[in-house]
Design brief:
The complex is a heterodimer. Chain A is α/β, with parallel strands linked by helices. Helix content of chain A is 47%, strand content 28%. Chain A has helices at 28-40, 60-75, 87-96, 108-129; strands at residues 4-11, 14-23, 47-58, 79-83, 104-105. Chain A has a five-stranded mixed β-sheet with strand order 1-2-3-4-5. Chain A is globular, with a radius of gyration of 15 Å. The mean pLDDT of chain A is 85. In chain B, strands 1, 2, 3, 4, 5, 6 and 7 form a seven-stranded antiparallel β-sheet that branches. In chain B, strands 13-14-24-23-19-20 form a six-stranded antiparallel β-sheet. In chain B, strands 15, 16, 17, 18, 21 and 22 form a six-stranded mixed β-sheet that branches. The relative contact order of chain B is 0.05. The chains are: A alpha/beta, B alpha+beta. The A-B interface holds A 24-26, 56-57, 59-61, 63-64, 66-67, 70-71, 74, 80, 86-88, 90-92, 95-100, 106 and B 640-641, 643-644, 662, 665, 668-669, 672-673, 676, 721, 723-728, 733, 736-737, 739-740, 743-744, 769-773.
Chain lengths: 130, 773
């Protein structure tokens, strides 16, 4: 089983990457090859959501790919959020303390609420600036 | 005073009894002797008394006789004055009761005057002419008898009717011209004789008497017998007595009671005999008195002797009593006491000195003994500690390879003394190689134990570097040869077992060959042996390989087994050893071999002391055949593709083996991290390397081994990554994979040798999957 990656642009400032299969030393190049061009197109403050509900397995090579995504969004002043990691994957993330707990979500509703809140903060900040 | 238990009392009692016995015996003897002497002297006295009495009577009679003879001579010439003579004589001589002058008549019809003057009872003298009596005196027998007595003789007594008393005459013939012309008669009364007798001295109770020639009593203390004839037995006794006293039976003479002794003496000039009767009881009563007095004196003396003996003995033996008391002290172990001062150098003095010496020697011995016992106790406790230390040098008696359960080992060591020179040891050289050895130091006891300690410690220290048994023996030999002036040596059998395939490499330094038990057969496995360790510094050793099959057991032992001796001197030997092992039921565990062999050796040498240390080590090999429990053994090229192909096969193998998904993914993650690491770092992307992966399941665990010939890399030593909580923080993320490996494998072991890196992993399988968060 290999990796399937399905990008989704629900809005200009949000990229959702649906991962399925395994993200390991064998597939991380494929992931990087698909993800990096998409990341390069993102505007400032964009949010990337990694939907891990279909990801069965991740190894350290996969973790490094995730790290690269996070670095890219951070450079844009945006966020990388993880959605619904499977227990095995969640275990790996926990072991290496890969991401802050506040950025891991178990369901889309929770994620949407968080994103709305961010959106408002951004809007408020823009209003104050003006 | 301890009554009869005291020697002093017993001595006194016995000496008292003894002297009483002696005194009684001598007393009885003395009594007999005394009685004889007493009797003799009494007899002598009696005889003397009798003679004295006879003489007394004679003296009185002699006066009367003298006067009468004088009258006879006077009458020869002065016949006319006879009457006057008679008066004068009677007046002068009161002993005489009457005097008669009688003449033989020339003419019987005209007898001449025969004047007779006698004394009346009132003392007056009367005169009478006997010639005028009708009695014709010249025809009377007394006259005729008198005529024939020119020198005088005593007539028979007679009773005078006129004077009413018993008289006795002394007649002397008046001689003229050669013939008797008449007689002079002087009368004395028997009463007078009686009074003479009465005046004589005699013992109280004795009876004196006088008998005349015809056996009539003339005088007797009992006056009623005067004139009476004496009893014939008395006369007979008088006649036969001679000089010796006669013994008179009781009842012969009624004036004495009981038996009596008769003493006699003749009254000279009369034909009379004086007798003295002394009753036996009189003699014996005085003898008895004497004897009783002597006896009383003797008893008194004896009492005195007993008293003196008692005092002297008690005084003499007094130190003995003290010594006895002190001896009881000694018996109780109390040696501190004072002894009586020995005043003299006699037996008791010597005993006291000897006792004192004994007490001091005993105290010294006791002190020495206590010291020796304490010393011995200290040595014993040191030996006990040494024993514990030596036991601590030995690994556990039972070893079961916990990870893969491929080998099981039982060992037992029993020293002949508290500590011994036998040794066994085993340890993992690395994750794959198991080293074991059995050895026997020459000699026994403490030197051997120290040498053994040195050898076992050195062996363990050298083994990880040496790795090969021959190399280990070589290095050990070099080390132990140094400074081995006492020339002690050790025989050693050393083996290194590859736990992955049961290859056992053996090397021997002069040790007994091991026994291989396979399929119910036990036989010696001959190993080419080098010299014993510690003798030749240049010694070299060769190795031999033995491939163990499943259910094989290898037995290593020391000569304490084969050389165990029975009472008859025979040895247990290798034949019995092999036979003991072959009796083991199939599929026995290693512990059964050691305990069975030890029991057989004990039964064989039941009544003998164990002469040598005994060590038995049994190694059982339980290697499972391939394919069992989802066994996987792959060798891949050092490429990422190869790695993932292997991971896929591993995954499916584990799935087939029923391993839970969670564990499978853990295994996969760890193996991926490790193998990718080997490919990318160990081989730097080169594909000509080889990685070997072996996986199997056992007892709730997944066991995996990785062997790789790339650059050495110990994942256990890699530095831990800095985990900030966000993997995006660090510039370059590294070490995450190794961190994951360490976190996920239950157990991880690494070693590196000339073949490369070797990793052994263990995962505890769990069916629990974490609930989704």
């Amino acid at each position: 089983m290999t990796l399937e990656l399905r990008p989704e642009r629900s809005s200009p400032s949000r990229l959702v990457l649906h991962l399925q299969g395994r993200l390991d030393a064998n597939t991380y190049l494929e992931f990087d090859g698909t993800a990096q061009p998409l990341l390069a197109d993102l505007p400032r403050g964009a949010t990337v959501v990694l939907d891990l509900s279909g990801l069965d397995y991740i190894s350290s090579a996969g973790l490094r790919s995730v790290a690269r995504v996070r670095k890219a969004t951070r450079a844009l002043g945006g966020h990388t959020l993880l959605l619904d990691p499977q227990p095995q994957v969640r275990k790996v993330f926990d072991i290496v303390k890969a991401v802050p707990v506040s950025e891991v979500f178990t369901g889309t509703a929770e994620l949407d609420a968080y994103l709305d809140r961010i959106q408002r903060q951004v809007a408020d900040a823009a209003g104050e600036d003006e | 005073m301890r009554g009869l238990r005291s020697i002093a009392s017993r001595l006194t009692l016995w000496s008292l009894l003894g002297s009483a016995l002696v005194i009684t015996a001598t007393g009885l003897l003395l009594l007999g002797h005394l009685r004889q002497t007493w009797l003799r002297s009494a007899h002598r006295e009696g005889g003397t008394l009798a003679f004295a009495a006879a003489h007394g009577i004679e003296a009185h009679l002699a006066r009367a006789a003298e006067a009468t003879r004088l009258l006879a001579r006077l009458a020869r010439t002065r016949s006319d004055l006879t009457e006057q003579l008679a008066f004068d004589t009677l007046r002068a001589n009161t002993d005489i009761a009457g005097v008669l002058f009688a003449w033989t008549p020339d003419d019987p019809t005209h007898p001449p005057i025969a004047p007779f003057v006698d004394r009346q009872r009132n003392g007056s003298l009367t005169r009478r002419d006997l010639g005028r009596d009708d009695s014709r005196y010249w025809e009377q027998p007394w006259f005729l008898t008198g005529l024939s007595c020119p020198d005088g003789c005593w007539q028979r007594p007679f009773f005078s009717q006129s004077r009413q008393q018993r008289l006795i005459n002394y007649s002397v013939a008046i001689r003229s011209a050669g013939r008797s012309i008449g007689i002079v008669n002087a009368d004395v009364t028997l009463a007078w004789l009686q009074s003479v007798l009465g005046s004589l001295k005699r013992p109280d109770g004795a009876v004196m008497f006088v008998v005349d020639g015809n056996g009539h009593f003339l005088a007797h203390d009992g006056t009623d017998r005067l004139g009476v004839a004496a009893p014939p037995q008395l006369l007979q006794a008088l006649a036969t007595a001679g000089d010796t006293p006669g013994e008179l039976q009781a009842g012969i003479d009624t004036s004495v009671t009981g038996r009596a002794w008769l003493y006699r003496a003749p009254v000279a000039g009369t034909g009379w005999t004086l007798g003295l009767l002394v009753p036996q009881s009189l003699l014996e009563s005085s003898l008895r008195r004497l004897f009783l007095r002597e006896l009383a004196l003797g008893l008194l003396a004896m009492l005195g002797i007993a008293l003196i003996t008692l005092i002297v003995t008690r005084r003499t033996l007094a130190p003995l009593a003290t010594l006895t008391d002190r001896a009881e002290h000694v018996a109780r172990g109390e040696l501190d006491f004072t002894l009586p001062r020995a005043r003299r150098h006699d037996e008791i003095g010597r005993l006291t000195h000897a006792f004192d010496r004994m007490r001091r020697q005993l105290a010294r011995h006791l002190e020495q003994l206590t010291r020796a016992t304490r010393e011995q106790e200290r040595l014993r406790s040191e030996l006990e500690i040494a024993h514990q230390i030596q036991v601590a040098l030995l690994p556990s008696e039972h070893y079961l390879d916990a990870r893969c359960a491929m080998l099981e080992l039982h060992a037992t060591l029993r020293p002949a003394r508290a500590v011994g020179g036998d040794l066994y040891s085993y340890f993992m050289l690395d994750q794959q190689h198991f080293c074991l050895m059995v050895g026997d130091v020459s000699d026994k006891g403490i030197p051997a134990a120290l040498f053994m300690a040195r050898a076992i410690t050195l062996a363990k220290a050298l083994a990880p570097r040496a790795r090969q048994p021959a190399q280990l023996l070589h290095q050990l030999n070099r080390e132990l040869c140094q400074g081995n002036d006492s020339c002690m040596f050790i025989t050693l059998l050393c083996g290194v077992l590859d736990t992955s395939d049961g290859r056992l490499v053996l090397a021997s330094a002069g040790h007994e060959p091991p026994v291989l038990y396979r399929n119910g057969q036990a036989e010696l496995f001959q190993v080419d042996t080098g010299p014993a360790i510690g003798l030749d510094e240049e010694a070299t050793y060769v190795e031999q390989e033995l491939r163990l099959c499943a259910a094989d057991t290898l037995l290593m032992y020391t000569d304490g087994v084969t050389e165990a001796s029975a009472v008859d001197g025979s040895m247990f030997g290798i034949e019995r050893t092999l036979a003991s092992l072959e009796r083991a039921p199939p599929l026995s565990r290693s512990g059964e071999f050691t305990s069975r062999l030890m029991a057989d050796v004990d039964a064989f040498a039941a009544d003998c002391d164990q002469a040598d240390d005994i060590t038995i080590l049994a190694l059982s090999w339980h290697h499972r055949p391939q394919g069992e429990s989802g066994m996987l053994d792959l060798t891949i090229e050092s490429t990422v593709e190869g790695v993932f192909a292997a991971l896929e096969r591993c995954e499916s193998a584990l799935e087939e083996a029923g391993v839970a998904a969670g564990t499978r993914e853990d295994v996969r993650l760890v193996l991926e991290e490790l193998m990718v690491n080997m490919v990318q770092h160990g081989h730097r992307g080169s594909a000509d390397g080889a990685i070997r992966l072996r996986v199997r399941t056992a007892d709730g665990a997944v066991l995996a081994e990785l062997h790789d010939d790339g650059a050495p890399f110990d994942p256990l030593q890699a530095a831990a990554p800095t985990l900030s909580g966000d993997i995006a923080d660090p510039e370059e993320v590294g070490g995450l994979g190794i961190h994951l490996v360490r976190a996920m494998a239950s157990e991880l072991a690494y070693h590196h040798d000339r073949d490369g890196n070797h990793l052994q992993l263990r995962f505890i399988t769990t069916d629990l999957t974490e609930p989704p968060t």
